[in-house]
Amino acid sequence: MMVSAQAGGLWDCHTHIYGPWKSFPLPDDAAYRPAEAPMTRLLEMHQGLGISHGVLVQAACYGTDHRALLAALAITEGRYRGVALIDGTADDATLQKMHDGGIRGIRFNFMGHLPGERNLDQLRVLVERIKPFGWHALLHGQLRQLLPVLDAWSDLDIPLVIDHMGREEATREPDESRLKELAKHLRHTKRWIKLSGVDRMMKGVPSSWTAAIPVARMLLAAAPERAIWGTDWPHPNVQGNVPDDACLLRFVQDVCGDDKTKEAVLVDNPRRLYF
């Protein structure tokens, strides 16, 4: 598939937006209530870091109401893409409208503090629904939760993206057996890893996050052509201080090391996944 000329440039593959409240208020039963963080602020942050492309991940507090996300995508003229939250009520016309608006994937939340279906049979139905659109499924959870999902879905021939490096804690000795199991799954040509969430892996410890570099490099080595990165701006529900997005970019650049790998993770790989 041909890539448009505007597809070049650095990608931030994980962000959220909240508001503006005047136009897109939260529902009364929101899963959490973050501070307002509209698209205009995200674009300012990206401009400051030299990032020209991004991915908006539907925030759980908005549920399946994608009006804020689609409105934000509409002002970027195709430079940004979206990841949705859907359930069984989404018909083909709804999915087509999302696709036309820039949606390229759906997210499944397995973290206990976030709402969402957990039954793998029902989730598999949703995965089959998105296959004709060429979308991917983003799996968000701790590694101990995600490995059984990857085992159960080993036959699925659509991209499955592991969010936030499987949220394996890096403030202590990581579970090497789980990481090796994930690395084995990542050798599948449709399995991707997102080298994001290092601040969460470090439990909010403010540092250069050097303790997490070996884990990130191990996962990158398992799928160098299917690794992407994101800031997780504006960092909802974090422990400790909100991380500096410039430091997060430097972290992934340190993980990559050479220019060829940086180009793959920050430009080429996301371009293939989202265009």
From TrEMBL:
<dbReference type="Pfam" id="PF04909">
    <property type="entry name" value="Amidohydro_2"/>
</dbReference>
<keyword id="KW-0378">Hydrolase</keyword>
<dbReference type="InterPro" id="IPR032466">
    <property type="entry name" value="Metal_Hydrolase"/>
</dbReference>
<dbReference type="InterPro" id="IPR052358">
    <property type="entry name" value="Aro_Compnd_Degr_Hydrolases"/>
</dbReference>
<dbReference type="InterPro" id="IPR006680">
    <property type="entry name" value="Amidohydro-rel"/>
</dbReference>
<protein>
    <submittedName>
        <fullName>Predicted metal-dependent hydrolase, TIM-barrel fold</fullName>
    </submittedName>
</protein>
<feature type="domain" description="Amidohydrolase-related">
    <location>
        <begin position="11"/>
        <end position="274"/>
    </location>
</feature>
<dbReference type="GO" id="GO:0016787">
    <property type="term" value="F:hydrolase activity"/>
</dbReference>
